[in-house]
Amino acid sequence: MTLSQLDIIQLLAGYHSLLLCLALAARKRLRGLMVLVGTFGLHMLTNLGVSEGYLGPELDITSAFGLVYGPAFYFFVLGIVEQDRRFDWRDLVHLLPALIIAAWQPAPPVTYVFGLPSLVIYITLAGRLLLRHDRQSPQFRSDSAAISLSWVLHALIAFAVLAALDILREVARLADLGLSDDLALSLVIISVTTLMTAMFVRARQHDDLKGALPALDIEPVVEETGHADYEPVFQRINTLLVEEENWREPRLSLAEVASKLRISQRDASRAINLHSGQSFSRYVNRFRIAEVDRLMADPDNHRRTVIELAHEAGFNSKSAFNRIYRDETGRTPTQAFQAHKSC
């Protein structure tokens, strides 16, 4: 048996994807990504089995896989944004359209009539979850920049573009436009494999940082009422951070502060918003910036690097520190350090 270039690419993509799937099995919050990469791996191996004659026409369910990608991507996003999310058997209802297509096995373009709306709906739902996480993370985490999910949004866009390109490839093949279908499909498969590998790496990092947020909605407070009611709460929070220097903890969360003071996260957030005029993240980072400036001014630290001082003050990301420091002070950390050294 001689395998074509396309066959080899499908075999390698399937094998690689199933390995990623196994590596995600122990990550409960990443079950959606596990289903996503596992589906892609099975898709590739099924394509190969059909093209080589190992699977008969009755087992040619390749058209059904397209109806799994949308739900899987949505559940992947759901798992990494919602702290309290638990997956159970009821979620399997989202796979019902794929099972219907697998049993029916209609010819194109019937599958696209089902697949395209499904993909658009689930990607839209995933996008809404990402927007909520982006809006809420500064209210819950001091390292909101480190748990940003902008990379998921980029992956979502890339995923949608690749899906559109694959549909255009199929349309071109059906229209017999004379394009090399094998080459186009090979490029799509390589691109999807690369994308899923990058998602695998970033998702594990996000999971390690415990970047999922509680389901509780906490919005910035804009009204002027209620200041007096929350002033004692804010003073307790401020005293805690000043005396215990909790802001040195890189992953300090609103939940930890609220737990120590035995108050609700909503009350803690409201007090900080009302009396500091800032989100929890910005409020904590201002303590850290003040500490960095103090360390910069100490001649004993002038032989150290800026990033060493930043880590000592509680920052755990160089890029986030540089951006936050510049936004708060109007100059880069390097410029500030040089100014202190020249004094």
Question: Any descriptors?
Answer:
343 residues; mainly alpha; Rhopdopsin 7-helix transmembrane proteins; Arc Repressor Mutant, subunit A; 2 domains; 70% helix
Describe the 3D structure:
- The protein is elongated.
- It has 2 domains: 5-208, Up-down Bundle (Rhopdopsin 7-helix transmembrane proteins); 227-342, Homeodomain-like (Arc Repressor Mutant, subunit A).
- The model has no long low-confidence stretch (mean pLDDT 88).
- Helix content is 70%, strand content 0%.
- The protein is mostly helical.
- The longest helix has 31 residues, at 110-140.
- Helix 3 runs parallel beside helix 5, helix 6 packs antiparallel against helix 7 and helix 8 packs across helix 10.
Task: Give the structure's gist in a few sentences.
The protein has 343 residues and is mainly α. It contains 14 helices and no strands.
Helix content: 55-70%
Oligomer kind: single chain
Total domain units: 2
Strand content: under 5%
CATH architecture of the largest domain: Up-down Bundle
Terminal CA distance: 76 Å
Largest sheet: none
CATH topology of the largest domain: Rhopdopsin 7-helix transmembrane proteins
Task: Tell me, briefly, the overall form.
Answer: elongated
| Unreliable sequence segments | none
